[in-house]
Amino acid sequence: MRWRHIAGLCLLLALCACGDDLHDPLIEAILPDSASPGAMVDVVGERFDGVTRQVSFGATPAQAVLWQDRRVRVQVPAGISGLTRVVVTVDGMPSNPVSFQVQ
What we know:
This protein has 103 residues and is of the alpha+beta class. It contains 1 helix and 9 strands.
C-alpha cells in the first residue's frame, strides 16, 4: 500500500515539474522545410492563439498573412540566409526552436 502513495507522489511531482510547458506554443513542422526570402511557409503546431504573437527567423520577425491556433502562414524575411531557428512567441511565451534552411 505504501508504494502506491510513493508512486502517486512521484507522479504528482512530475506533473508539477512540467510548469507551463503544456501551455507554451509548440512548433511541430515548417512546410516546406526550406525556402527563399519572400516565399510563404506554413508553421504548423499547437497553441498559437493569443493576444500578442510573432514568428521570428533568428532575430528577424516575419510577416504573418494567416494566423490560426494550429497554423501560421508567414513570409520568409529578407536579409537572412542559411540555417536559422524559427520561434513562435505567443503572449510572451516562446515555442521550441525549429531549424529552417533559408536558400
